[in-house]
Recover the amino acids of this structure.
């Protein structure tokens, strides 16, 4: 097969649509996503381009039931709600199914009550707020354009607009961050009472401002032991507050797990629209297509032809299912894995798995393969050994 439209889609897989909105007010020094900080956002031109791309590619995914729509970025909360709403309507028309979750990422300080109401009217039912820290010094250090006081009004505006499913991002392992500062941020986050918390460690990426500083030895970050302690303490505090840890960086109140993200971890189908957006089209023969749009906004607007296309073999997807499934606290259902991929997840991996069990990172039963509590600190190492 030579083109991502070829082959029959696996109709048993649920479908998510991801829409990348690249525009941001500022570029954060840790961010390596495709963002565009131009002073004037082409709201309607970008909507038109996304809808045209949808029209061209929807047939590739037809037959899979639409489960979620997710607007990421960038800062899609900056997209004029009417323009964003046109995209939601177009996606709903293109596929069967009623999406359980329509999420928009937004930033505190940029979400007013009127804006939140407009998003709700456009069909958005979940907001993901980029709080990142609840400490003014840390927020300045990581280049955010809001202060800690902006978080509470943003959540309040969302609640008044009718949102009952809010997620907040929180980062640890930040330059100059202490355990006391991390504890204070987690406690302040719990007091805000979102339904979902994404708490993730800072990663240093090449090509970012932080990447340059780190390479020069000028980025003072907590050492690995402190970062591990931050993870462990945060997980415990969130659990005590009623948030279940269900994926490496994800915590949720009952029935509030992120449905869209679960598609990525469980091998669901997803169509990515917009600059730099990635797609996965699983096929009924056990193989699948991955393809990614051009990264630069202007290149995408001129020609959205995928910049990278790869036909993944069944063996590739089986390996991916292993490491993605191990990111979740549910782990890997061995019988379900065998039905989908034709082999037990331990087949050919027994020696590596035994080493992970002996290290205290992995738990194995006849039914399930999952990381231990300690194993979440070594998730990447476990994946590398079992790959």
């Amino acid at each position: 097969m030579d083109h991502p439209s070829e082959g029959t889609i696996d109709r048993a897989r649920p479908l998510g649509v991801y829409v990348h909105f690249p525009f941001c007010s500022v570029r954060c020094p840790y961010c390596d996503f495709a963002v565009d900080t131009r002073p004037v956002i082409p709201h309607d031109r970008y909507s038109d381009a996304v809808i045209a791309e949808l029209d061209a590619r929807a047939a590739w995914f037809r037959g899979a039931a639409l489960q979620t729509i997710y607007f990421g970025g960038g800062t899609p909360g900056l997209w004029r709600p009417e323009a964003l709403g046109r995209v939601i309507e177009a996606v709903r028309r293109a596929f069967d199914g009623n999406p359980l979750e329509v999420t928009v990422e937004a930033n505190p300080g940029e979400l007013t009550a009127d804006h939140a109401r407009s998003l709700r009217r456009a069909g958005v039912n979940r907001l993901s707020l980029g709080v990142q820290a609840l400490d003014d010094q840390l927020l300045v250090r990581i280049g955010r354009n809001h202060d800690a006081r902006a978080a509470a009004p943003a959540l309040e505006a969302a609640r008044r607009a009718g949102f009952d499913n809010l997620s907040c991002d929180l980062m640890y392992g930040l330059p100059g961050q202490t355990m006391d500062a991390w504890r204070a941020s987690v406690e302040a986050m719990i007091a805000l009472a979102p339904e979902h918390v994404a708490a993730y460690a800072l990663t240093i990426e090449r090509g970012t401002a932080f990447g340059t500083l780190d390479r020069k030895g000028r980025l003072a970050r907590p050492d690995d032991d402190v970062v591990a302690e931050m993870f462990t303490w945060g997980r415990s505090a969130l659990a005590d507050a009623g948030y279940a840890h269900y994926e490496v960086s994800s915590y949720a109140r009952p029935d509030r797990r992120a449905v869209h993200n679960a598609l990525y971890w469980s091998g669901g189908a997803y169509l990515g629209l917009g600059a730099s957006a990635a797609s996965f089209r699983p096929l009924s023969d056990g193989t699948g297509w991955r393809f990614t749009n051009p990264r630069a906004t202007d290149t995408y607007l001129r020609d959205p032809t995928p910049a990278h296309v790869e036909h993944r073999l069944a063996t590739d997807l089986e390996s991916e299912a292993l490491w993605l499934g191990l990111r979740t606290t549910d782990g890997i259902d061995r019988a379900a894995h065998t039905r989908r991929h034709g082999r037990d997840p331990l087949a050919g991996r027994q020696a590596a798995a035994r080493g992970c069990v002996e290290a205290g990172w992995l738990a194995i039963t006849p039914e399930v393969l999952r990381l231990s509590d300690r194993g979440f600190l070594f998730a990447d190492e476990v994946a590398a050994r079992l790959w």
In short: The longest helix spans residues 43-61.
